[in-house]
Specification:
TIM Barrel; about 350 residues; single chain; alpha/beta; five-stranded parallel sheet
């Protein structure tokens, strides 16, 4: 779709990166198993990620067949897709997907103030997927200066099981963007809270996860919640491995390759600009890549927007605590393990 916010869209010919995997899936399986053992990790979450992974269902199917053997660890498959080719997916692929993260390009949603066919395409793709596999679907929205968080969430809240949004990881913001985002956050939180009052729990991931960090008395982290430098490994088609899926045209986040192994960078976010921040246990530093590539001034712009959301949630804690007493099932919903499958904060 040539999304303007895409962080992995680049000229593969220019950077000499093949469009399809050059390693065998036996080599990849060996790397995964060795890494799981080295990290003493009992669960391998394998993401099919972009470019657009549904352009090559054959590769997805072959890896699933290769991994279909006894392991000392559990394997979960997560499909991160724009959904435009979900109807072409073989049933044997869809039935093995434990979670789908569906990235929505909101800039295509309207034309001349009317919904386009793109909205119908997304809705039909979700229904098709549900007919084959009733596993959870997370709608993932990138919030840019051209999109509205409030209208995007309200329009699609009934389409997805969960909604997650992230502020566009860009080099700079237009002057009006921060104010627009804060206004939308405030409006959307009031919308979410109004439903909590009547026993309806809308799965807006950033609100819920931040809330969980408050009520569960989360310890101060030393590593990024997103997995940067700890457990997130992006395997490129040439076999190189990165600590982040963004900016893979460069080698800023290179940590090794599947043939010789990997070495994570040593991370201590207490030594970063977040070290003395009162919100560090709520956001976990937000984004490892951000700390490597953005200026301190630009990082603080992201912090300012997230802190605005945290302040709204913290102010509402007494009210929400009473609602949890009224609706005890909210506690389990707040602690849902599925929230570990997003980058967490906006």
């Amino acid at each position: 779709m040539d999304c303007s916010y895409c962080s992995v869209l680049f000229d593969t010919n220019k950077f000499g990166i093949p469009k399809t995997p050059q390693y065998s899936f036996d080599e990849l399986e060996k790397f995964i198993s060795l890494t799981q053992e080295q990290l003493n990790d009992k669960v391998a979450d394998i993401y099919f990620f972009g470019g657009e992974p549904t352009m090559d269902y054959n590769a997805i199917s072959k890896l699933m067949v290769t991994m279909n053997k006894p392991h000392k660890y559990e394997v979960n498959y997560i499909l991160h897709t724009n959904a435009l080719r979900l109807k072409q997916a073989p049933d044997d692929v869809l039935k093995n997907i434990a979670l789908t993260v569906l990235s929505v390009n909101y800039e295509l949603m309207y034309r001349q103030n009317h919904l386009t066919d793109y909205f119908d395409t997304i809705s039909k793709a979700v229904k098709h997927l549900k007919s084959k596999n009733n596993s959870p679907i997370i709608g993932r929205f990138t919030i840019s200066p051209k999109t509205s968080l409030y209208s995007e969430c309200c329009l699609l809240v009934n389409v997805f099981d969960y909604i997650y949004w992230q502020i566009d990881n860009c080099d700079s913001f237009p002057n009006s963007y921060v104010g627009q985002y804060k206004s939308d956050i405030k409006r959307l939180f009031e919308y979410w809270l109004s439903f909590l009052h009547v026993g309806v729990f809308l799965n807006f991931v950033p609100f819920i996860t931040a809330l969980g960090r408050y009520i569960n008395d989360t310890p101060i982290p030393t590593e990024y919640y997103c997995g940067y430098g700890k457990s997130m490994i992006y395997v490129q088609t040439n076999g190189k491995c990165y600590a982040c899926c963004d900016s893979v045209a460069s080698e800023t986040h290179l940590i090794g390759n599947i043939y010789e192994g990997i070495s994570f960078p040593k991370i201590d976010i207490s030594q970063s600009v977040c070290g003395d921040c009162s919100c560090i246990k709520i956001c976990g530093g937000r984004c490892g890549r951000m700390h490597r590539e953005f200026s301190k001034e630009h990082i603080k712009e992201y912090c300012d927007m997230n802190k605005f959301m945290f302040d709204i949630i913290e102010t509402s804690l007494p009210e929400i605590t009473e609602l949890i007493k009224k609706y005890p099932e909210y506690k389990a919903k707040i602690n849902n393990p599925i929230f570990a499958y997003t980058e967490y904060t906006a």
